Amino acid sequence: QLQLVESGGGLVQPGGSLRLSCAASGTVFSINTMAWYRQAPGKQRELVASITSSDMANYADSVKGRFTISRDNAKNTVDLQMNSLKPEDTAAYYCNYEYILLFGGRSGAWGQGTQVTVSS
Question: Within the chain, which residues score under 70 in pLDDT?
């Protein structure tokens, strides 16, 4: 099993930048897709960006051109570089990993979330 921990959230002014990081602990056979989700108060959790083990990235339309997801397979980390932040990006951000267990079978893990607040 994996345990995930996010870092890098905070308060930033509109137009500013933040970089979120997610680190994993535990041992699995392989990690497939890594992703970032976000959830604003009163709204459903939504996919922000995902990246496959072959570095194929996918973005929500609302963040295309502003956010960049990247992963380090050696360290089992995934980052989200967020530029040109807008107030509507304010949310709790969660990382999610989909992985294969040591003895087979698929599973997933969520981090505890990190708050991003975009406000002047």
Answer: none
